[in-house]
Amino acid sequence: MSDSSAERTVERTLGHLRTIDAPEPHEQDEPLTLEDLYRRHRMQLIRLAVLLVDDAATAEDVVQDSFAGLYRKWAELRDSSAALGYLRAAVVNRARSVLRRRKTARDYVPPHGVNARSAESVAMLSSEHQAVVDALSTLPHRQREVLVLRYYGGLSEAEISDATGISKGTVKSTASRALESLHRAMQQ
């Protein structure tokens, strides 16, 4: 499997999950209230967090903390359309914090055997897709973040840069290295 074929496989798998989470056509206009954001994007953000931290309960906490942080800052928000970007960045940052705490609390080893996906999402994935999601859990957290945000989140390099706080060039090189690592992991 070449790197471009690994990229297509990752894009197909995470794109499939993104399609499952796509908002209804009537919900695609920008939410006006925090309640709208919560109702429309909570599950998508939880799935994003699950892909980053490999644990559903922790992912829910990460998203809840992100919404609580936005609630505290809501009055200071100049542009409500930027709220979803703020939430995405908050989820990524809180997921990073979780991973750092895990590493310092115990000599962190990624939980390869954990299957934090819902029964519905597992049933909807083919064996190839399951192999990709399993291989994602073997990647270092930054590489996993970049691939998840790119192919599941559908974000551009600039948006990934904003969400993760790394430069666009680093996003591009990290994605390339991640795809190479994923390719190797899937061949084993």
UniProtKB/TrEMBL annotation:
GO BP terms, alphabetized: DNA-templated transcription initiation
Superkingdom to which the source organism belongs: Bacteria
Molecular functions (GO terms): DNA binding; sigma factor activity
Keywords from the named record: DNA-binding, Sigma factor, Transcription, Transcription regulation
Sequence ranges assigned to domain RNA polymerase sigma factor 70 region 4 type in this UniProt record: 130-182
InterPro entries: RNA_pol_sigma-70-like, RNA_pol_sigma-70_dom, RNA_pol_sigma-E_actinobac, RNA_pol_sigma70_r2, RNA_pol_sigma70_r4_t2, RNA_pol_sigma_r2, RNA_pol_sigma_r3/r4-like, WH-like_DNA-bd_sf
Domain RNA polymerase sigma-70 region: 37-103
Family: Belongs to the sigma-70 factor family. ECF subfamily.
Matching NCBIfam families: SigE-fam_strep, sigma70-ECF
PANTHER family cross-referenced by the UniProt entry: ECF RNA POLYMERASE SIGMA FACTOR SIGM (PTHR43133:SF50), RNA POLYMERASE ECF-TYPE SIGMA FACTO (PTHR43133)
Protein name: SigE family RNA polymerase sigma factor
Organism: Haloechinothrix aidingensis
